[in-house]
């Protein structure tokens, strides 16, 4: 179906505080686009909200791509960055039961190919220059109640693994992994450090 990802995983690049909150409460938090750096993207969501006369429009963004330097640098820069890999089928089967929720892959277009797009597509459109993100977006709409956040509960079994920032020092990464596994029901979660910037496998090719 057009609203399903092509991959069996969805990566959420975020920060360690967000991860700890997510694991402790077993909730994904959707937020408004007010502070998004891509103001073109935020504008489309704001116009969609106005045209549909919604009280609330919130979103949460994932990637259908494996980790790249771009993902870490833009979405999870610095030693506190993390990447949460979800099983897309398990996660979306829970998400789709929530009233007001919809989701689909983001479509990336050139300006000349984006003239007069349909209203329903507006929250899922971005400029072609951002295509490497491979974004998959979940949105929440409410025409009656104004909300700043929307929390969606999920089962921890949806998480395949957690990858810690390539800039996190190894001794700290070891301690952080223990903190994560000490959270209730998280003892079996796989936690690894990213080898993107330093890979023994890559070095041993020579």
Number of domains: 1
Strands side by side in the biggest sheet? 1-4-10-11
Query: How much helix, percentage-wise, in residues?
Result: 25-40%
Order of helices and strands: EHEHEHEHEEEEEEHEH
From the alpha-carbon coordinates, what is the Rg to the nearest angstrom?
Answer: 18 Å
Strand content: 25-35%
Count of alpha/pi helices = 6
Largest sheet: 4 strands, mixed
Short structural description:
This protein has 206 residues and is of the alpha+beta class.
Describe the protein's architecture and organization.
It is a single chain. This protein is of the alpha+beta class. The chain has one domain (9-203). The chain has six helices and eleven strands. It has helices spanning 16-25, 39-51, 69-75, 88-95, 170-182, 200-203, and strands at residues 9-15, 27-31, 56-63, 81-87, 101-105, 107-109, 125-127, 135-142, 149-153, 159-164, 191-193. Strands 1-4-10-11 form a four-stranded mixed β-sheet, with helices on both faces. β10, α5 (170-182) and β11 form a beta-alpha-beta unit. The longest helix has 13 residues, at 39-51. The protein is globular and about 50 Å long. The N and C termini lie far apart (44 Å). The mean pLDDT is 95.
Keywords:
206 residues, alpha+beta, 4-stranded mixed β-sheet, 3-stranded antiparallel β-sheet, 6 helices, 11 strands, 27% helix
List the helices and strands and how they pair.
Blueprint: E1 9-15, H1 16-25, E2 27-31, H2 39-51, E3 56-63, H3 69-75, E4 81-87, H4 88-95, E5 101-105, E6 107-109, E7 125-127, E8 135-142, E9 149-153, E10 159-164, H5 170-182, E11 191-193, H6 200-203
Parallel strand pairs: 6-7, 10-11
Antiparallel strand pairs: 1-4, 2-9, 3-8, 4-10, 5-8
